Amino acid sequence: MTEHWTREHAAERLRRPGAHDDKYRRGVLGLRTGSARYPGAAVLGASAAWRTGAGMVRYLPGHDEDPPYGLPAPAAAVLAAHPETVFGPGRCDAWVIGSGTDPAARSALEQSELLELLHGSAPVVVDAGALDLVPRPSADRAPLILTPHAGEFERLWERTMRAPLPREWVARPPADAEAGGNGAAARQEAARRLAERLDATLLLKGSLTLIASPGGRVLSCGPATPWLASAGTGDVLAGILGALVAARSAEVRDDRESLGPLGATAAVLHDAAARTASGDPAATAAGRPITAGDVAQAIPAAWRALV
């Protein structure tokens, strides 16, 4: 049975700093995101992480080609947007990897270093271009939460299950299916089965976002405002989620099932920020067009409204 994750549930998971906190206790998030062709993904993820309350954001650029079209390197773009960001290796309580990267352009060195993170102890948010690296369950694997959209979910399923998805699966279900009509049950069951097989938490993005834990729990959030359906908003969601996981890293290491509620909370905050930015509190598309950057900018106001 699927549980609906509400704004009230999310508010309980948003960690407020206390008098004895410092930047390390609030969580240090490491980013291995963005690329020569997509430096904006690194900026959006860093912006979202900072505005979600990370104590420190550490950026490690990948081993990439020279930027085309006169674009800045991802590290330079992040520095220009957020000079408070720290660069280079060091302590990290959680990681976000894969946003704005292309597996086809990944070097052997980059792959080796990402696999090292996936087999480390710190929790990892695995997005976009790193989903193909998710290793088989093992005792030395980090706690993982994967954030595929429907197409990426299909590829993950086929690679993992070595079989096509059930006939009832619909990549982009109509509104009635999202709300619980035909197709909803198939999406929930597919997410649950894949999370169990991968022994990882899955956040299946959509108007109605599903979060499936390997223990069998399935949470749902939404429907979200339709204004979120634009380029770059997934990078913002990954940054939000990374900051939330970093703040509760010790809890996640002790209980990997806690990634499910954190993923659902990230989805709720992401939607709340988009509604704030678009002026669409009822999620009816009656607001105004927004960009992913607008969503990141609105996170603090959305946080305040939730708590």
TrEMBL record:
Primary enzyme class: lyase
Keyword Lyase annotated: yes
Cofactor(s) required for function per UniProt: Mg(2+)
Annotated signal sequence range: none
Binding-site list for (6S)-NADPHX: A41, G100, H149, D235
A UniProt-annotated Pfam family: Carb_kinase
Keywords: ATP-binding, Lyase, NAD, NADP, Nucleotide-binding
Ranges of residues in domain YjeF C-terminal: 6-306
BP GO terms, sorted: metabolite repair; nicotinamide nucleotide metabolic process
Recorded GO MF terms: ADP-dependent NAD(P)H-hydrate dehydratase activity; ATP binding; NAD(P)HX epimerase activity
Residues noted as binding AMP in the record, renumbered to the chain: K205, G206, S207, L208, T209, G234
Keyword NAD: yes
Catalytic activity: (6S)-NADPHX + ADP = AMP + phosphate + NADPH + H(+); (6S)-NADHX + ADP = AMP + phosphate + NADH + H(+)
EC number: 4.2.1.136
Superkingdom as given in the UniProt entry: Bacteria
Protein family (similarity comment): Belongs to the NnrD/CARKD family.
PANTHER family, alphabetized: ATP-DEPENDENT (S)-NAD(P)H-HYDRATE DEHYDRATASE, ATP-DEPENDENT (S)-NAD(P)H-HYDRATE DEHYDRATASE FAMILY MEMBER
Protein name: ADP-dependent (S)-NAD(P)H-hydrate dehydratase
Organism the protein comes from: Leucobacter triazinivorans
Gene responsible for this protein: nnrD
